[in-house]
Specification:
The chain is built from nine helices and no strands. It is mainly α and 177 residues long. The protein is globular and about 55 Å long. The two termini are 20 Å apart.
Amino acid sequence: RSLLAAGRSRLGKEGWRTDYDLAFELALQHAECTFLSGDIAGTEELISTILPLARTKAHKAAIYRLRVELYVVQSRNEVGVECGLEALRIYGIDFHPHPSWETVQTEFDRLERKLDGQGFATLGNLPPMTDPDLLALMPLMAELLPPAFFTDFNLTVLITCRMANLNLEYGRSIFQG
């Protein structure tokens, strides 16, 4: 954690302009290490500093994923859901925190049509997903599942179906959550 802080300090604020990718990676890794060390307040402070500087959907999704995880470990599931849903809107996905069963059924019906009677085993045979924005979206959605489960089961099913639909449409995503 201290090495990452030193690297960020050495880059300075100018680093966000001159070497954005390095500045972002150092900042994200610093926030993740701070989180893993149990410093909740420090993690939230770092996230709040990094998020406005993020330029891409993928980078924003990575930061939001960490923020959702932070809320989950604090048992702040409703706040975690709000945060995750805010992040999904960056991708044009506008889920209600308490979706109706009809909304879930519509997403499931879409999934059934895409599967075309082939079953879920089809997911394992898909080519890999390559879009970096979508590759960042999938772990965010996976991180959103636990707080969704504790706040609204319909939301859990809706997210799961959307993840499967995205895999069928854009390729199989393999990530470490």
